[in-house]
Amino acid sequence: MKPMIYGNKALAYGAIESELEYFSAYPMTPASSVLTEIVNSKRVTYLQAEDEIAVMNTALGASFTGKRAMVATSGGGFALMTEALSFAAQAEFPIVAILSQRAGPSTGTPTYHEQSEISYALVPTFGGGDHVVLIPSTMEEGYAMAGYALNVAQKYQTTVIVLTDKQYSEGKVTTAPLVATPVHRGKLLENPAPDYKRYAFTDDGVSPYVRVGTEHGDFIATSYEHDEYGATTEESSLKVAMTEKRARKLENFYEKEGIVGYRVVNETAKKMILTFSFTAYTAEPWVRENPEWGLIVVTCLKPLDARMRDVIVGLEKLVFVESNFSGQLEDYVTKEFGLKFVPSLEIEHIRKYDLFPFFIEDFDSLKK
Fold it and tell me: Which residue among 43, 114, 214, 310 has the highest number of C-beta atoms inside a 10 angstrom radius?
């Protein structure tokens, strides 16, 4: 019999099996059950903190020591984390944040479905800094992606946001066998030289890091701009060099990782739906019943995979399907790929913001 699992459990245990070492959270629907699963597992050091400011700062403290750290929240809690995420960008702390969207704005309708935090996930910090946004669309994908997110965070010493929603977080399905992602801790130094530089300049922008307490591994972690040792600086040339160092980390991301940031169903179709997350569970069977249509499911939102543009520009029609009023997914992908300047491509959308997810019959309007 195939196992049955829900989204937050897939994420929690996918991270646990990939050596998650610290987790913190403040209960907030629909992310709360990630905390429940972590606590019940009795396998990970955790903290249920007094607020999301403490959640993120304690997780960054764990990351500072070399631990694989993760938090989980929704929009209102994520808002309290953004100052610390900006610090993480400057100090180059690896961190994974599960952002489980709910119906907003503000407290909104907290126990219902919406996908209105896409733009926020794309720009969660002030003062610049790059990061990665991953989106699981199946439970199997979420299980593997949680561990992969921990790997990416440590390999590039960056923030990785795993973007989900109410329906994914609490949706329950039977699954194929779940496979955990092998652990990759990036440039972890066990025996640093006496002149160890935590923020050493490298060709790929990623500097070797150490576990706190390692001999010769002392360094300063600060929110200020700094030199290679971490000492605060206001020297112009160092500011330029450090900014460019951090920017190099995610260059050629897909080439370095050997992954694809989307998947396609019915590749020969000339009309396609573009969507993400749990919506794929209803879009895919509809496409299989209507073979003149195809489906593009985005699994890495930032950076976008440029190969997806090659798929899109050859189409006659592209329909963005998302659960928000403003069309955040459409706005982002259209601008990033310059799709409004593709004269042969007809762009449409279906947007739903009535608190409920997309059902199969919601796609029938495309038959007209």
Answer: 114
Say if CB 262 and CB 309 are below 8 A apart. no
pLDDT by position in tens, the chain (length 368) = 567 899 999 999 999 999 999 999 999 999 999 999 999 999 999 999 999 999 999 999 999 999 999 999 999 999 999 999 999 999 999 999 999 999 999 999 999 999 999 999 999 999 988 999 999 999 999 999 999 999 999 999 999 999 999 999 999 999 988 999 999 999 999 999 999 999 999 999 999 999 999 999 999 999 999 999 999 999 999 999 999 999 999 999 999 999 999 999 999 999 999 999 999 999 999 999 999 999 999 999 999 999 999 999 999 999 999 999 999 999 999 999 999 999 999 999 999 999 999 999 999 999 87
* Contact residues for 32 (Cβ-Cβ < 8 A; gap 6+): 25
Smallest Cα–Cα separation from 262: which of 289, 314, 313, 302?
302
pTM of the complete model: 0.97
| Amino acid occupying residue 166 | K
